[in-house]
Design a protein that fits this description.
It is built from no helices and eleven strands. It has 124 residues and is mostly beta strands.
Length: 124
């Protein structure tokens, strides 16, 4: 069973950048479909970005496209989310997730493993 640990969150001002990391307990992590989700207080968990199991395809939600960049160490056990030009509406608890399924997975129920989350707070 894969264990995921997120880090890198914090309190920043609008326009600042943060880099989130997700470290997995297994080196095979790069072979999973992986994703970032976020959840703001009182809201449902929201898809942010996903990377395919072969690392070739990355898809972003419209709300973060052109500001966030997802990447992973090839063959390693770490996933990153570079977040630029942060906005107050990006404030949320950010989760890393992994799925044994292959495909275009933008819904949370497809993911088998989740981290505990790292808080990102953006002040205006």
């Amino acid at each position: 069973q894969v264990q995921l640990v997120e880090s890198g969150g914090g309190l920043v001002q609008a326009g600042d950048s943060l880099r989130l990391s997700c470290t997995a307990s297994e080196r095979t992590f790069s072979t999973y479909t992986r994703a970032w989700f976020r959840q703001a207080p009182g809201k449902e968990r929201e898809f942010v970005a996903t990377i395919s199991s072969n690392g070739r395809y990355i898809h972003y939600s419209d709300s973060v496209k052109d500001r966030f960049t997802m990447s992973g160490d090839n063959g390693m056990n770490t996933l990153y989310l570079q977040m630029n030009n942060l906005k107050p509406e990006d404030t949320a608890l950010y989760y890393c997730a992994a799925s044994l399924q292959v495909g275009y997975l933008i819904e949370a129920h497809w993911y088998d493993y989740w981290g505990q989350g790292t808080q990102v707070t953006v002040s205006s």
